[in-house]
Specification:
By secondary structure, this protein is mainly α. The chain folds into two domains: 96 residues, Rna Polymerase Sigma Factor, Chain: A (Orthogonal Bundle), CATH 1.10.1740; 90 residues, Arc Repressor Mutant, subunit A (Orthogonal Bundle), CATH 1.10.10. The protein is built from eleven helices and no strands. The protein starts with a helix and ends with a helix.
């Protein structure tokens, strides 16, 4: 099986299969990631296209990477936030990008909402997730759903390495406090997160 480094280098060197492979293996993930910023499907699709057009145009000058998904998520995040801010007539500055809050919805919440719209379980999950800040939800998403290292998270969120570790710890502490006073249904849902803390 080819590594990300090999595929990426092949893409940079113009090998035909590499672009198709990267696009095919990452398009669904980028789309789902885009839904965490906006529900505007056309904007998400346009942003994905922009990311890939940029890659194609600048392939010969791209740097190396051993994590294609991380590279694409970083490029996608920057572009979609710019587009959203442009639509809302925000000032365009790097500071805006760094402070933009992601609307993180975890996959199990999506599944439950689909099956049990506004049930007690969904309401309870929303309540617990609502007790942490959007930035905390975002960092937990990167750490436990995307399985990114603290170094990768600090790059993606434009924060210091130590800050990323502290944010994860504080978010988990907040969730634990809620778990102590909540129904046991949360234990299974957050079990994976709690094990890794």
């Amino acid at each position: 099986m080819l590594t990300d480094s090999t595929i990426w280098n092949d893409f940079r060197n113009g090998k035909g299969y590499a672009l198709s492979y990267i696009y095919g293996s990452q398009i669904e993930h980028l789309y789902r990631y885009g839904r965490k910023f906006t529900q505007d499907e056309e904007l998400i699709k346009d942003t994905i296209q922009e990311v890939f057009f940029h890659l194609i145009r600048s392939r010969s000058t791209l740097g190396e990477t051993d994590n294609i998904r991380f590279y694409l998520m970083s490029a996608f995040k920057h572009r979609i936030i710019r587009s959203i801010q442009s639509e809302k007539h925000f000032e365009k500055s790097d500071e805006d990008i760094d402070t933009y809050e992601l609307s993180i919805t975890y996959s199990y919440e999506d599944e439950l909402i689909g099956k049990e719209t506004e049930s007690k379980r969904v309401q309870a999950i929303r309540k617990v997730l609502g007790t942490i800040t959007p930035k905390q939800r975002e960092i937990l998403y990167y750490r436990y759903t995307c399985d990114y290292s603290y170094e990768e998270i600090s790059q993606l969120m434009s924060i210091k390495y130590d800050s990323s570790r502290k944010m994860v710890f504080r978010a988990l502490e907040s969730l634990r406090e809620q778990l102590d006073h909540s129904d046991f249904i949360f234990l299974g849902l957050f079990k994976k997160i709690l094990k890794k803390s």
